[in-house]
Amino acid sequence: MSHRSALAPSATQKSMPTSSPSWIQRHPLLAFFAWFFTVGQAFAFFPVVMANRGVEVPHQPFILGSTLVGLLLPALVITRVADGPEGLRALLRRAVEVRVSAGWYAFALLLVPVLSVGLSVGLLGRPTDLSPSIIGSTLLSSFLLQILLNLVPNNWTEEVAWSGFVQRRFQDRHSPFQAALLAGPLFALQHVSAVAGATLGGAVFLMMVMALLVTPYRFVTGWVYNRTGSLLLVGLLHAAGNAAATGSGFMPGLLRSLYPESQLAGMAHLLVFALVGIVVVIATRGRLGLDSAARAQPRSVDERGLELG
Fold first, then answer.
1. Is the pLDDT of residue 7 over 60?
2. Residues 6+ apart with CB under 8 A from 221
3. DSSP string, 176-231
4. pLDDT grade, residue 291 (50/70/90)?
5. Collapsing DSSP states into helix, strand and coil, what is residue 8?
């Protein structure tokens, strides 16, 4: 089975008629964002609106609704409209690609959590009451279980849309580095409901900080996706990072459990992702795993290596 590098322009895209009357075919990204920043954000802001009316509703079910209806649905539908059935099948194949080496799975599941714990211990000190039984139960409930709760309905779904649809299409027209720079602030805006209630100046400041932190994360996702072609692996990377710190939204993650009073512990994974992203940019000279030849030459799964490197 041969196909192009994950974020490179697909043959299906090039075969679509350029004179199509469909606005969605001509502007798939605009169509996606028009849907997500209206319908998708309506889900995310519903608990905020209800709270202002004195009614408390759980946030996480609506965040999941925003992800599924606001991100995954338009990514799939617009891909079908813009790229045809073959383009949709290609996206779905990448979404469930599991033929990746063990090194990549270790990278996705362990690197950011281990570094996040190390950073927290270095800055906050050793957590109290770390008996073997406490460590085991915390790892099980606050890390492994959180990955399972996060992966399929949330982080995998997000990355099908952000890596497989948005960032890939940006990379069709721009360099991988530029594509990540474009995707990062938009990815940050997905979380704008989290700063609702702050003053305008405070909300703008918080969103700028979030954009600065998550843009290097898009460097990492672009590199992993370019090198492996697996959206499932990118989703695991996302889920492991969240599980290491904030958790699923239904339960606290590992560091939130170990340091319940610390705001830094909840942000440690973002700081680590930022550091790893900068290292990736420097190590790949901004190519994020996609050489210029990859845009012109199709490569098979074996030729892409699917190995850590």
1. no
2. 159, 162, 163, 167, 180, 234, 237, 238
3. HHHHHHHHHHHHHHTTGGGGTTS-HHHHHHHHHHHHHHHHHHHHHHHHHHHHH--H
4. confident
5. coil
* Cβ contact 195:203 at 8 Å: yes
Instruction: Quickly state the pLDDT bin for 6 (edges 50, 70, 90).
Output: low
Neighbours of 55 (CB within 10 A): 9
Structure tokens at 220: 């990492």
Tens digit of each residue's pLDDT (9 = 90 or more) over 237-254: 999 999 998 877 778 888
Domain ranges, ordered by start, for the chain: 2-300
Q: What is the pLDDT of residues 16-53, one digit of tens each?
A: 444 444 899 999 999 999 999 999 999 999 999 998 89
Element spanning 300, H or E? strand 299-300
CA dist., res. 229 & res. 265, Å (int): 31
- The overall average pLDDT reported for the chain is 86
Give the distance, in angstroms, between the CA of residue 98 and the centroid of all CA atoms in the same chain: 17
What percent of the chain has pLDDT above 90?
A: 62
Q: Are 4 and 299 in contact (CB under 8 A)?
A: yes
Quote the radius of gyration of the chain (alpha carbons, Å). 20
Residue among 36, 40, 20 at smallest CA distance from 81:
20
Q: What mean pLDDT is predicted for residues 209-227?
A: 96
4 Ramachandran zone, left/alpha/beta (phi>0; psi -120 to 50): beta
Is the predicted pLDDT of residue 309 greater than 90, yes or no?
Answer: no
φ, ψ of residue 52 to 5 degrees: the values are -65, -20
7: its two tokens: 């974020």
199 vs 96: CA distance, rounded Å:
42
**Which residue, among 207, 202, 206, has the nearest Cα to 185 in the 3D structure?**
207
Structure tokens at 195: 């700063």
